User: Which sequence fits this backbone?
């Protein structure tokens, strides 16, 4: 009787993203895999009839013998090509593995390609942009990833009398930050060259979008690198003009910023839609996710004077559970400013019903 045993052994490493750090290819990246297939075929001819117990014993012996011959991956080494790795096995053998590289057109790095300046479309006026642009965010080739999933602590709006052209997402120093979409790193610059952004990355994507990642403690990619959606690109921090650890994330088209919450639900870690219709009035700092088109259009017509709050005072009544920190965050200010406005100290015990000036 002929018995054929076909056993497929799949060793899975990372195919979606890989970290460029001292922990190796597997160490930091969980749930990211590449595939190495080895097929072992054993054929055993035996026409002798044996009893069930003997057959089971033979199977156990063969399984034990076979398991000892399986090569186990133990590490990977980087090569000059970021998308080619050397896989090392415990039996001393090795092989090259080519990781799927994103399909990014070379022309993406032709127009306004500036690696030394955060904003590269300074000569493109808002009036010259089309009324709307249809942007495909994902398809069968290009994927997406939340840069960091967490609560938005500061939105796209006027903050402290100046435009805040992105969102702030709370994190801890050292938390991994991921590329939102496939693209090419245009900017990888330190605090000394970016001012308020701190250590910052700017990635240009195939659909024309650029995404900004600010206040990083460290970035692990460089200008010109092709990156995949979900690839680790840096670590959260509080560099630049920052009051605490967070990721400052921006979305821009031809240099014009719009509310990133129109694309991502950061708290739930989801993409709002695969196709995004970007309208010109979205570029207004007064246009936010959640508004109707008419509300957004009306808001975009506001003048800077309409947004000014310098001459307007605002007050807040303390509720149960409030602290100076919570009140400051809610009203886009700082504890120090609240204390100055109200002539109190930071350790002041708040009373329910107490009225505080917040602006």
Assistant:
């Amino acid at each position: 009787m002929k018995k054929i045993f076909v056993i497929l052994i799949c060793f899975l490493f990372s195919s979606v993203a890989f970290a460029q750090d001292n922990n190796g290819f597997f160490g930091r990246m969980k749930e990211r895999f590449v595939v190495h297939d080895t097929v072992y075929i054993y054929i055993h001819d035996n026409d002798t009839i044996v009893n069930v117990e003997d057959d089971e014993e033979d199977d156990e012996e063969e399984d034990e013998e076979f398991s000892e011959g399986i090569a186990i991956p133990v590490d990977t080494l980087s090569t000059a090509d970021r998308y080619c790795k050397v896989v090392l096995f415990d039996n001393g053998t090795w092989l090259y593995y080519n990781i799927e590289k994103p399909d990014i057109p070379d022309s993406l790095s032709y127009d306004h390609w500036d690696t030394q300046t955060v904003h590269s479309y300074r000569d493109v006026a808002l009036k010259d942009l089309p009324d709307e642009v249809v942007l495909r965010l994902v398809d069968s080739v290009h994927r997406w990833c939340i840069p960091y999933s967490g609560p938005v602590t500061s939105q796209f709006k006027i903050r402290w009398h100046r435009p805040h052209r992105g969102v702030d997402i709370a994190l801890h120093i050292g938390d991994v930050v991921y590329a939102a979409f496939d693209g090419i790193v245009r900017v990888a610059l330190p605090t000394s060259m970016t001012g308020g952004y701190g250590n910052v990355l700017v990635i240009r994507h195939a659909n024309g979008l650029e995404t900004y990642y600010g206040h990083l403690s460290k970035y692990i990619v460089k200008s010109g690198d092709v990156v995949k959606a979900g690839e680790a690109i840096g670590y959260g921090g509080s560099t630049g003009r920052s009051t605490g650890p967070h990721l400052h994330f921006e979305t821009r088209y031809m240099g014009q910023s719009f509310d990133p919450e129109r694309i991502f639900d950061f708290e739930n870690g989801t993409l709002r839609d695969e196709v995004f219709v970007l309208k010109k009035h979205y570029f207004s700092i007064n246009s936010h996710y959640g508004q109707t088109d008419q509300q957004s259009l009306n808001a975009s017509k506001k003048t800077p004077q309409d947004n000014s709050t310098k001459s307007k005072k605002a007050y807040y009544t303390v509720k149960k559970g409030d602290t100076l920190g919570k009140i400051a965050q809610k009203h886009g200010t700082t504890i120090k400013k609240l204390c100055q406005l109200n002539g109190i100290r930071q350790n002041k015990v708040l009373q329910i019903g107490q009225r505080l000036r917040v602006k």
